[in-house]
Specification:
The structure is a homodimer. Chain A is α/β, with parallel strands linked by helices. Chain A has two domains: 107 residues, Roll (Urease, subunit C, domain 1); 282 residues, TIM Barrel (Alpha-Beta Barrel). In chain A, a hairpin with a 3-residue loop joins strand 1 and strand 2. In chain A, helix 13 runs parallel beside helix 14. The longest helix of chain A is centred in the first third of the chain and has 17 residues. The termini of chain A are far apart. Chains A and B meet through helix 2, helix 10, helix 12, helix 15 and helix 16 of A and helix 2, helix 10, helix 12, helix 15 and helix 16 of B.
Chain lengths: 417, 417
């Protein structure tokens, strides 16, 4: 056994909690869970007294390099923010800046307990380069969009697939992608779906983020974004659909039937005044709902703890999401969206684990571990992040990323905007 | 000069930012702000490179001892939570437990940048004892409520006033209080208002937290809670009215005319499914709007950074609160609610200051200090908290509270529930 966590309070499937637990890790997998010392001697022991061991969090919709635009444009709606501020700024980005912004983002993710991300951006091979170095898991895509030649995009995607799809035993996977209905056209959707089908890929898109998107789509096609995507075969592969704020009951039926994942991005959706997704309606309708931060330019954090709490408190009421439900969105459902054997502390699952220090005033006393994890913990309470059994972060130290160099480069990069 | 902050990025009034600033503190007041080294030599120098110096935050509505009930009952509405879970649990509290719970809460407050709180609870002299030791500022009250004999409450209040009103040069003040319209009666309101008028006190109450409270009050009195309070003279003194979720335009006019403060508690109001207060309507109507966390049993944090961000993203739209607006709620408007010369980095104001370490991945790059302070910073980024020129917390160490003892006592205390 490579590593043994000792004396931890372990968060097991279905929000069960095992106190004074031993959790063993071998060859990147969870191999032991119990309250007895396992027979096999461990290579290393991690003491967990006063600490909670939880499944690592899965951020199923983000744009990592947008950390470089954190705080660049705030307090406006999506349309203004995107077309008047973000798109012009993004024109100035280079491959090297995207790489730097990605490393900066990955430090934030790893330090706040995220073990896997689904990223959508351009210069995606430079995002992949950062992900490869960092040790985090990722589903990555370069979206098809605009009036651009989709044959060029398909060629680029195939190149990215050749370079990174399946890298490091599947730690990195490449998804197909359409940016959004309102930024592309049917020919592009069909090309992306074809790419996905022919290469066995999942597909990542933005869906029904704003009421304007919904209304203009209905005017243009006589169908909602989900319905028009479905008509053009986009849902013939497993889709991760970000936002899903303005979807109809019929859209929910489409997503459920096609096995798609809706990614709830509550902070970004509120901040850009897009609205609040009907999380419980989607879950009841059979949709896999996961959780994402969106990019740091519209959040302005990549802290999944903040996202869990916001999701839970926004979905209070007669049929509340609850703390356990929010945790499920950020773990089990996220892993499902990415098609990974992760998101649970269970034997045979990937050792994607986080340890949180609960010996702090804001986490005491501890009546209910799951409640405290979702409603009281912050990303900064994470003291260890492990992916596939490898420790990436421990007690404030990044073990795979040169913190000082990246902070320096990111500071310089921001001056170009 | 007692203390000089050097090389800080200082957040000045109206969200102005002064880089490479010197800020001097003497005898508990801010005495110097500039980019030149002041002539007078300081007693101590605090280096601020890479750090942001901001006004300390004012939490204008909380119940400090309820930290002991953090995570005790979640995922239900206010009525169920309060009457079926919280009130029965509170029956078990003792003076000593209230003291312990208050110290636990104050550690959380101080470590996350809060310099002053408005607290409402029972055994309030034990809350005051904790506040006195901690060095934080506080407006404290023991609410009048129920069918209880208000003469007893008045006598108790006068005793509390004698003990603590004006303590340590006004660091502690005692407010009069009515718990809420739905938990009391006109005779009690009048007694509380009389107590306030006769002793020159402010008054703290809960107001229109839920739609049920509003509806039942209208049925009972033919008036909204604000209107019926006004009829009975409650607003004849400066009032801090917590929640104000379900208030009418006429209520807004009453609050504005009477110079009352509405305390926005966005996290607690969402978590208990009470709704979202119309912050911008109240501000436009001339009401002083401040910010509070409510108690840790309904939040479940006392982190004002979380509260600022939630307030700002909930009030996006055509007339957004904005980051600067949220900061104002948590500083200037909070100090105004408490009647204090605090909440601003300005010469002559109380030296209630917080220093934040911005040399962290989630706070870089720094395009906009105010945006990053509100949208990206967490309470855990605070590395120094100063009240009246005295440092209460620095680099994780509490200088006035015995952290280990309080955590131990709080853990024991939780076992009684």
């Amino acid at each position: 056994m490579d590593t043994l966590f000792r004396n931890v309070t372990a968060v097991l499937p279905d929000a069960a909690v095992l106190k004074y637990a031993y959790v063993g890790v071998d060859a990147g997998k969870i191999t032991y869970i119990g309250t007895e010392l396992p027979a096999e001697p461990p290579g290393g022991v991690i003491e967990g007294r006063g600490k909670v061991l939880a499944p690592g969090l899965v951020n199923t919709h983000t744009h990592l390099p947008m950390t470089l635009l954190r705080g660049f444009a705030d307090d406006m709606d999506l349309q203004t923010w995107l077309f008047q501020h973000i798109f012009p700024a993004e024109d100035k980005l280079t491959a090297e800046l995207v790489y730097t912004g990605s490393l900066l983002a990955l430090m934030e993710c790893i330090a706040s307990g995220t073990v896997s991300v689904s990223d959508m951006y351009f210069f995606e091979s430079d995002v992949a380069r950062a992900v490869a170095e960092s040790g985090i898991k990722a589903n990555l895509c370069r979206p098809f969009q605009g009036e651009e030649n989709h044959e060029v995009r398909t060629r680029e995607a195939l190149e990215l697939i050749g370079q990174y799809h399946g890298y490091d035993n599947g730690r990195i996977r490449i998804d197909a992608s359409v940016h959004a209905e309102y930024t592309s056209s049917p020919a592009i959707w069909e090309a992306a779906a074809t790419l996905a089908r022919e290469n066995g890929l999942r597909l990542h898109t933005h869906l029904s983020e704003t009421v304007r998107e919904h209304d203009e789509c209905v005017t243009k096609y006589g169908l909602t974004p989900a319905a028009v995507f479905d008509r053009h075969g986009l849902f013939s592969v497993p889709v991760t659909a970000a936002h899903c704020v303005h979807i109809t009951d019929d859209d929910i039926a489409i997503l459920a039937e096609r096995g798609a994942t809706a990614v709830h991005n509550p902070v970004s959706n509120l901040k850009l005044n897009s609205g609040v997704a009907r999380v419980q309606a989607m879950r009841k309708g059979g949709v896999n709902v996961a959780l994402g931060t969106d990019g740091a330019a519209s959040n302005n954090s990549l802290d999944m703890f903040e996202e869990m709490k916001t999701a839970a408190i926004l979905a209070a009421g007669d049929d509340p999401l609850t703390a356990a439900g929010a945790l499920r969105l950020a773990t089990v459902n996220g892993a499902k969206a990415q098609g990974r054997e992760s998101g649970q502390i269970a034997v045979g699952f990937d050792a994607d684990l986080i340890l949180l220090d609960f010996d702090k005033p804001h986490l005491q006393p501890l009546h209910n571990v799951i409640s405290s994890l979702v409603y009281s913990a912050r990303g900064s309470d994470v003291c260890l992040t492990m992916v596939n059994g490898t420790i990436l972060y421990r007690d404030g130290e990044f073990l795979t990323i040169d913190r000082e160099r990246v902070l320096r480069e990111a500071g310089k990069a921001a001056c170009i905007f």
